[in-house]
Amino acid sequence: MDDRIAVGHAAEQAVAKELETRGYFILDLNARDRRGELDIVVRRGREIVAVEVRSRRNSDCCAAADSVGRKKRRQVRQTMERWLAQKPEDYDEVRFFVAAVNWRDEVPEIRIYEDAF
Fold it and tell me: Domain locations in the chain?
């Protein structure tokens, strides 16, 4: 397996665990369709959140979060719309977070930016 893929997968798992400690329930991981992917979809109460995970090694977390450009934000929003259309979830609010993971000596430092876009 490509090292970048392994690091990305580890980052997504670390973020999923962090979100669970914050009271979120994991609905989906790596939800894909032909036109996009949602890294993590979580629920807390009546809100559903799509979480885009970005990972860097020995870098600033802000650099990871800043790497989510306009095109990616649009793709995530559209993929979330399609995901919601296929799921029988009842919700009041949809939110979008970016989770930036910075690896230092194999230990993830996680920063979650709520309502990132």
Answer: 3-113
Helix (H) or strand (E) holding 21: helix 3-21
> What torsion do the CA atoms of 11, 17, 69, 46 make, to the nearest 10 degrees?
160
| pLDDT score, position 1 | 47
- Cβ neighbours, 10 Å, residue 55: 24
Fill in the amino acid letter for 16: A
Q: Which CATH architecture has domain 3-113?
A: 3-Layer(aba) Sandwich (3.40)
Residue 84, SS3 per DSSP: helix
pTM, rounded to two decimals: 0.90
φ and ψ at residue 109, rounded to 5 degrees: -100, 120
Other CB atoms within 10 Å distance of the CB of residue 103: 17
* Residue 58 contacts residue 104 (beta carbons within 8 Å): yes
pLDDT tens-digit map of 98-114: 999 988 888 899 999 99
In tens, the pLDDT along 3-50 reads 888 888 999 999 999 999 999 999 999 999 999 999 999 999 999 999
